[in-house]
Amino acid sequence: MTEICSAGQLKYINRIKRNKRIVFIARIMVFVLLIGSWELGAQLGFLNSFIFSSPSRIVRCFIDMSKSGLIWRHMWVTIYETLICFAIVICAGMLFAVLRWRFRMVFRIAEPYIVLLNSLPKSALAPVLIVWLGNNIKSIIVAAVSVAVFGAILSIYTAFIETDPEKIKLIRTLGGDRRHVLFKLVIPSSIPTIVNTMKVNLGLSLVGVIIGEFLAAKEGLGYLIIYGSQVFKMDWVLLSIVILCILSAVLYKLINILEKKVGR
Amino acid sequence: MSDALTLKNVSYSYHTMQGETYALYDISLNVPKGSFISIVGPSGCGKSTLLSIIAGIISPDTGSILINGKSVKESGSSIGYMLQHDHLFEWRSIYGNVLLGLEIQRKKDENGKQRAEKLLDQYGLGDFKASKPSQLSGGMRQRAALIRTLALDPEILLLDEPFSALDYQTRLTVCDDIFSIIKKEHKTAILVTHDLSEAISVGDTVYVLTKRPGKIAASIPVEFPDKNMTPLMRRNSPQFKDYFNILWKELNKND
Questions:
Q1: B231 to chain A nearest CA, in Å?
Q2: Can you give the residue range of the structural domain that contains A43?
Q3: CA triplet B237, B242, B247: central angle to 5 degrees?
Q4: Which of A54, A59, A72, B36 places its Cα 20 to 30 Å from the Cα of A134?
Q5: Which residues of B fall below an 8 Å CB-CB distance to A?
């Protein structure tokens, strides 16, 4: 960076900076406006706060429930299930992508079945899983994994087979075999795709876990949402949704940090 | 002088569902130790296929390949292959890239590392060991690719149009550069190219391949007054033009 700038350069930099500021301020204003009009609408009676709740009621509800520790338990259960599901999806995704890459013939045979399973709406499986595995965390995890895992296998495998054939030839010219091609070339060159897949799958795992909790759970945010709507405790429902928003934002941020670390 | 490499009646064809393509037909040639051979031919004449066969990546349909008079398996892998692009891995440093071959062949011991470092220092990349490939110029990258090959201490070097991805000016200097490194390391080399001038500027013998299926149409010994001339000096000498014309005729005869 040079210390001395021409007037034109200075003007340019100032304009960029000003635009950035405007975007930032506008974002905050949108947030304040939305929350403000929601609260105001509820206070003035335009919105029925029994049905629509209100920001202040959600905050109060949060304070009450965090005192009793109830909300923390539901939150923890959902996070815990999501992370387990995410770990399984990534490990299984990698493993199956590697196997698929290594044993192409076997997977050519299996291909139509994988495609079928991938396009099947996984929530249709959930009742079956409950019957088979019981009304417990196992069903939730399996349901959530089934939502995300096929897409993960597909995208990681696609990255694998898109490896530059000339680079594979390079490994061969250096005397390498398939194993070297896999570990020295295919996996390292697919890292950006793998991280991207992780990004998508963290979100999908959360989706899957919530669906699972809708159907088979005694705790967790998904359970809280369903239970709350059944007993008309809309504060619970909306509080859970707000927490889910924050949760997915935090998880996304974590993956971003990981991505920066991996991407040198 | 003994031969580093002998090809006897090598033929090869590709198979697809659309049919069979004859790539090479009855190729026989001898490459004396320490010599530099160029092979020219139109694109698609099976030049790269020939190198892949010599390197043992694919095996010929018929014919045999002898290295130092022994079959490829017996003589052990002592062939280095330099591809058209450097293919340096962006996720490794230059030093890490140079060590790739040693890692694969489980030779990444102190000896191997020292040789790699010495080569990097010797050929002007000592300060770039920790750099990423993208921080280097095209010429330096190609030099790094050559060092990656040389780190395995091969006896024979195969060069598959290694300069064709570079712009013209860089190409001439890098060609000089690589040529002098190969000579200094006393390697036997085979260069494959479609560039006539390049073939003449480095080769002791130039082989002309015909269009598909690739056959040897002519082998032309190239002699310049001074053995130690660099490719660029050869390009400027009066004999260069004569060889060019001879080869030009040979190539066009086969059209």
A1: 26
A2: 7-47
A3: 120
A4: A72
A5: 52, 55, 57, 77, 80-81, 83-85, 87, 89, 91, 100-101, 103-105, 132, 148, 152
